[in-house]
Specification:
Protein name: UbiE/COQ5 methyltransferase
CATH architecture of the largest domain: 3-Layer(aba) Sandwich
Radius of gyration: 28 Å
Largest sheet: 18 strands, mixed
Structural class: alpha+beta
Number of strands: 25
Distance between the termini: 73 Å
Organism: Nitrosococcus oceani (strain ATCC 19707 / BCRC 17464 / JCM 30415 / NCIMB 11848 / C-107)
CATH superfamily of the largest domain: Vaccinia Virus protein VP39
Shape: globular
Domain Aminoglycoside phosphotransferase: 418-599
Strand content: 15-25%
Number of helices: 22
InterPro entries: Aminoglycoside_PTrfase, Kinase-like_dom_sf, Methyltransf_11, Methyltransf_Superfamily, SAM-dependent_MTases_sf
Keywords: Methyltransferase, Transferase
CATH class of the largest domain: Alpha Beta
């Protein structure tokens, strides 16, 4: 890297970057369009591909599962193809590892951002940003986000992501992390995030491997436990440097595994060393164990909840909040308040093994928010609670939250209470989830005067947006999920209740004349979802065959249009005994849809739940063949077809339409990125349906 003396820089047309500092000497930084320079030591840092290159020593550093050449090709192609194609190509390179799918596209993974106290103009550092999914998710809630990583090639792909998904957000990309200090002035940041980073900061092979014989390497590994090279001491120095760049009341967020996770007691190997029981051993013994078995020292330190407290206190972070992350900070499904505000968070108790796996000592991972001083201001979750209180004309501090989980559909769901009763707060994290949540909210408002059916649906209570986070509030329905009850009762016992609900849901059916499935009606119901499937499959011949089949079977049929749920599965129906007590999740609802699809949806979901070994490729053909159904199911379908004004001889065609719309919804929810699942749920099913149709014609 070139060097410029201070007098030269003083005469050039450069502006001072008060938000950045030299990673070599912490001096002031000035910048022009092509590079930055340090006023104090004269070091210069180029801007390449929109990325400020603050690397000091490790310019060849590369940490990525794809080769450098493959990553370069992927990034060049990413500028010109849909993002889903880029993700699928990356996943092929990592043999479809589901952890990378979660890393690349799971928006619910970062639901913990709601726990942060971020002012609207917050400056946030995503330290070790990798491929940028965390930055993408937190940027809409902040004033500026710095995405910093030492692997330049990762940042180049992250930039493509930000251009696609964050065009209006202020994101600064920085290559670096190997300098004497972080490239920021003292006390300049509101928040620093470490998601899966802290445990790796001491894992530097150069610390212990100086070459030589196997014995010399083993000796180096053993000795790296002592002195300044000890992993805990390196982590402390790292945390002290983060404290330097944070404002006094700024926040550090750490997502990291629990050393004493219940899963490590025989359920799985240590995440980082790959060794059984390594995290449970005393550090000295773990180091000997790893050196003997893996031929490298044990340097990826994680801690218990008390261990993290001691570590953070030693680094000057005296105020801490702790949440459990289950089943981990990857594949996140649930946030568990462990050490936090007792007023807002009032989680229910648990028993048995569930109590162990959710306990503060044995939960799989932690989300820790630490500050040098007691922070001020409200977290995003507290701001949402305050907004709900205002919209519902409630007293302050009258909303409490009990349970926070995420779904596979890019959505967070909080169960809570007000003085008027239990509520559900829905928090969509991507555009598809936002569209669904808005549709759900509007539908509930529209059917609020529907008489008897209104009693079985949630009531839309409030909606709004706080710092880029939309929220939707509705009343909570009572009862148990029908899906859970299927294992206890015969599913045929529920058919009468399901038929009754579908009948009152479209109680005015008899007033509607059947309409021809053609024109715009056909386009909305058939052509648009088929176009979504076509974009995902990249198999024009198969799509043309499907298009011809669906048009031959469906175009011009006469059906009664009516209200349709769009995802009328056993996971969205609540029951008391054998009666329906509520139906939730109207994200795919349609006031002028095809109601017979809800009846098919229910039967298919019940069969799939009761036959866990069956895939969609098996349940759809089974459903399409009425002879495979029992007498009560056939009667249920016949009555449903009659009510909808449809000849049941077209049953197989409507099963195909149900499947098409079902998978089109799943594409929006993340299926489009998962090549093996696309093959199983889309390609295999479509080929099976077309083959079955071909046999019936012959």
């Amino acid at each position: 890297m070139s060097s410029l003396d201070a007098s030269t820089m003083a005469h050039e047309h450069r502006t001072q970057r008060e938000d950045l500092a030299c990673p070599r000497c912490a001096g002031a930084i000035v910048a022009n369009d092509t590079e930055l320079g340090c006023v104090a030591c004269g070091a210069s840092y180029p801007i390449r591909d929109g990325i400020i290159d603050f690397r000091c020593h490790r310019h060849d550093y590369y940490f990525n599962p794809l080769s450098r050449e493959a990553m370069g090709e992927l990034t060049r192609e990413a500028h010109h193809v849909p993002w889903a194609n880029t993700v699928r190509r990356f996943l092929r390179g990592v043999r479809q590892n589901p952890d990378w799918l979660d890393n690349l596209v799971a928006d619910g993974r970062y639901a913990w951002k709601l726990l942060l106290r971020l002012p609207p103009n917050a400056h946030v550092l995503d330290l070790g940003c990798g491929l940028g999914n965390l930055t993408k998710n937190i940027a809409p809630s902040a004033g500026r986000v710095y995405a910093l990583d030492l692997t330049f090639e990762r940042l180049k792909l992250a930039r493509v992501r930000f251009d696609r998904f964050n065009p209006n957000d202020d994101i600064v990309l920085l290559a670096g992390g190997d300098g004497a200090s972080l490239p920021f002035p003292d006390g300049s940041l509101d928040c620093v995030t470490l998601s899966g980073v802290l445990e790796w900061v001491a894992d530097d092979q150069s610390v212990w491997d100086r070459g030589g014989s196997r014995l010399e390497k083993a000796t180096g590994a053993f000795l790296s436990f002592f002195g300044a090279a000890n992993p805990r001491k390196i982590q402390l120095r790292f945390l002290n440097e983060i404290r330097r760049v944070l404002k006094p009341k700024g926040q550090l967020f750490i997502a990291i595994e629990n050393r004493l996770s219940y899963r490590y007691f025989g359920g799985r190997r240590d995440h980082h060393s790959g060794l059984w029981f390594a995290s449970l051993l005393p550090r000295f013994l773990a180091n000997i164990y790893s050196t003997a078995v893996a031929r490298r020292p044990y340097r990826t330190y994680t801690y218990s909840i008390n261990g993290y407290r001691r570590l953070l206190n030693a680094a000057g972070f005296s105020h801490q909040e702790v949440y459990g992350l289950a089943p981990g900070y990857t594949h996140l499904a649930e946030l568990l308040p462990l050490q936090t505000d007792k007023h807002l968070w009032q989680p229910p108790g648990s028993q048995g093994f569930d109590h162990i796996r959710r306990s503060r000592n044995f939960v799989p991972a932690y989300g820790i928010i630490a500050s040098p001083r007691v922070p001020t201001g409200l977290s995003l979750a507290e701001k949402i609670a305050a907004a709900i209180e205002s919209q519902l004309s409630l007293d302050g501090n009258s909303v409490s939250f009990a349970h926070f989980h995420t779904t596979g559909k890019g959505k967070g769901v909080i169960s809570g209470h007000t003085k008027h009763g239990p509520i559900i707060v829905k928090l969509p994290f991507n555009n598809s989830a936002i569209a669904g949540a808005e549709r759900n909210h509007q539908f509930l408002q529209q059917v609020a005067s529907m008489g008897k059916v209104r009693e079985l649906l949630p009531r839309a209570l409030a909606a709004g947006k706080i710092q880029g986070v939309p929220y939707y509030v509705e009343s909570r329905v009572e009862g148990r999920l029908l899906r859970a009850e299927l294992g206890r009762q015969n599913q045929l016992d529920f058919l009468k209740a399901v038929a009754g609900f579908l009948q009152i849901f479209n109680s005015d059916f008899h007033e509607r004349a059947p309409e021809e499935l053609s024109g715009e009606f056909y386009r909305h119901q058939v052509s648009l979802p088929l176009e979504q499937v076509a974009d995902a499959l990249e198999d024009p011949a198969l799509i043309e065959e499907a298009k011809s089949y669906l048009r031959d079977q469906l175009y011009g049929l006469r059906v009664r249009r009516g209200r349709a749920h769009g995802d009328f599965s056993t996971s969205n129906i609540f029951v008391r005994g054998s009666e329906i007590s509520g139906v939730i999740d109207w994200d795919n609802s349609d006031l002028l849809g095809i109601p017979i699809l809800d009846a098919l949806n229910y039967l298919e979901s019940a069969h799939r739940y009761l036959n866990a070994d069956m895939s969609l490729a098996q349940t759809i053909p089974l459903l399409a063949d009425k002879d495979q159904l029992n007498e009560k199911e056939q009667q249920f379908l016949e009555e449903s077809y009659n009510r909808c004004g449809i000849d049941s001889n077209h049953h197989a065609a409507f099963v195909s339409l149900y499947w098409l719309r079902h998978v089109a919804q799943q594409l929006d929810e993340g299926l489009i990125y998962n090549a093996p699942a696309l093959e199983e749920r889309v390609t295999a099913v479509l080929k099976g349906l077309l083959k079955s149709h071909s046999r019936s014609d012959s």
